[in-house]
Specification:
about 280 residues; alpha+beta; 7-stranded antiparallel β-sheet; globular; disordered N terminus
Length: about 280
């Protein structure tokens, strides 16, 4: 009996995760540097990018994969004009978290056997925030919230991605829910547009952020009373969030708070930083 149980557990998917940014790689890359984690970046459709992290936080057992990915998604999305979708799975569950600006994150989970454990309303909120079709796409998402003995947890995430193809998502070949981090990275690494994201220091990261902002025509919006108000709000939220993440030993939320704080400082000091460069 114990042998069968152990074999069943060995057949379960290894922990893995993806971050899907609704932005092109040239915009997603500089933002991802601020996470200070090694990742591979590649295109995932005309207006999407995929980030495959190494996964050290959860591989070492210090923090569950869903908590890490939620913090990273929030850190990437806050202050950015595009949403970030985190997809994750481990031996017991799979799920997703959608982060968009300052809004509260929305997510859904399935147990290893595919049993839904989320709220149906979360799927509707998810679809609305991504601008999916309120009729056709909702109808396609609803089966994911209902029991289906033929679908395990990775199959549920694949079903979600199938719906997102209508929004332009095209994952690289070999990037499949349920695969280990190593296999995901191997699949992305062979892509001609693959890029290694590594921490290069605060000055380089901030400079890259400024270049992306200005090339996208958003530079002028970082000046004036409204920009300073937004920057002050980012600082007011980022500092306590960083402290909360540290107290809870949550690396993901600590990073989210740090990124939010940095963007607030960047907003307040934009003119001086650009003049200095």
């Amino acid at each position: 009996m114990s042998t069968a149980s152990g074999a069943s557990r060995d057949d379960r998917p290894a922990p893995g995760a993806l971050l899907l940014c609704r932005a092109r790689p040239e915009s997603a890359g500089p933002a991802a540097q601020l996470l200070r984690e090694r990742m591979l970046l590649a295109g995932a459709g005309p207006d999407w990018s995929v980030l495959v992290p190494e996964g050290k936080p959860w591989q070492h057992g210090t923090e569950p994969v869903d908590r890490v990915l939620t913090g990273w998604a929030a850190a990437l999305a806050v202050g950015a004009p595009w949403p970030v979708l985190a997809l994750w799975w481990d031996t017991d569950r799979s799920g997703f978290t959608l982060a968009s600006g300052f809004r509260r994150t929305v997510g859904y989970e399935w147990l290893a056997n595919g049993t839904p454990v989320g709220q149906d309303e979360a799927m509707h909120t998810f679809a609305a925030r991504l601008g999916l079709d309120p009729v056709l796409d909702i109808q396609a998402l609803e089966p994911l919230t209902q029991p289906d003995p033929a679908s395990d947890a990775p199959a549920r995430v694949r079903g979600l991605l199938a719906v997102l193809t209508r929004a332009g998502v095209r994952l690289p070949d070999g990037v499949e829910p349920g695969e280990s981090v190593d296999r995901l990275r191997d699949a992305v690494r062979i892509r001609p547009d693959a890029e290694q994201i590594e921490w290069s220091g605060w000055r380089a990261a901030v400079g890259a952020e400024l270049d992306v902002v200005e090339s996208g025509g958003l530079g002028p919006w970082l000046r004036g009373p409204r920009a300073r108000t937004l920057a002050a709000v980012q600082l007011a939220v980022g500092l306590p969030l960083t402290a909360w993440g540290i107290r809870r030993h949550s690396g993901g939320w600590t990073v989210a708070g740090a990124v939010l704080t940095l963007r607030g400082l960047l907003g307040l000091a934009y003119d001086q930083l650009r003049a200095y460069d």
